[in-house]
Amino acid sequence: MITGKTRIIGIFGDPIEHTLSPLIHNEAFQYLGLDYCYVAFHVKKDKLKEAVEGIRALNIKGVNITVPHKETVIQYIDELSEEAKDIGAVNTILNKEGILRGFNTDVNGFILSLKEEGISIKNKKFLILGAGGASKAIVYGILKEGGKVYIYNRTLSKAIAIKEKFKDHGFIEIVEVDKSLTENIDIIVNATSLGLKKDDPMPLNPELIKPKHVYCDIVYPETPLMKEAERIGCKVIGGIGMLLWQAAFAFKIWTEVEAPIDIMRKTLDRVLTKG
Length: 275
Ligand SMILES: NC(=O)c1ccc[n+]([C@@H]2O[C@H](COP(=O)([O-])OP(=O)(O)OC[C@H]3O[C@@H](n4cnc5c(N)ncnc54)[C@H](OP(=O)(O)O)[C@@H]3O)[C@@H](O)[C@H]2O)c1
Fold this sequence. Notes:
six-stranded parallel sheet, six-stranded mixed sheet
């Protein structure tokens, strides 16, 4: 029940109608009897500054930040966590008595989605496809955990920018993708946006995927290349785990309560299987 005491949490993005975050968080608040309500706000680029000022003005407890605002929002907030500062992107804001602190929970969201599947990261060789916003968080997380990054992107300059940003954090090399490379790789990650639309090309030629690879896709629910990797006999990890765990970390930041991960997972499964 929404009362005069209910605290608001939200998400800013453009577009925003497709977001699953209100469903996951509201179900979790209800399950734990926490007096919060999570709402999606459609915030266009030219209104981001006012929207962030609105967090303070309306005493909103916190927000998630999604495409296209994760980087530009930084100029409007007061403090950054170490990860958000290193990556240069924020996906979660906490309003602590008018001071806005930015976090990046995509990093640990991705790492936990691997660890919960029993995948170790240290010294493993990762082929990262893509060099957009999500790729930055993933590369940072892998390097922090002692993994090795081989990165490919259609637009070379963006891969170069990621290498420059993180070269002091561990092993990172820009690559062209061919058989001699993939033979040497342990874990392949699709961090491009390919796989959602029907006519998308594959982010990687499936012939380069072998049963020894772990195939990981951050696009959800299930992409054609995930199906192909499963058919080949790989261990396959989809994007739902990352979505779930980044939400769980944000939940803890706002409420200081452990997120009910099983409830959140069930909610996602229910919504996604309904289509
Ligand atoms: N599971 C989760 O929790 C989670 C979290 C964050 C994001 N995501 C998903 O991850 C995807 C990427 O997000 P993002 O924020 O990183 O997007 P982004 O910043 O727009 O980056 C998109 C990436 O995809 C590549 N790409 C797009 N179209 C391509 C094509 N036709 N051929 C080759 N490469 C292409 C881009 O390459 P260029 O640089 O050459 O354009 C770029 O590397 C989205 O689908 C998003 O929904 C999932």
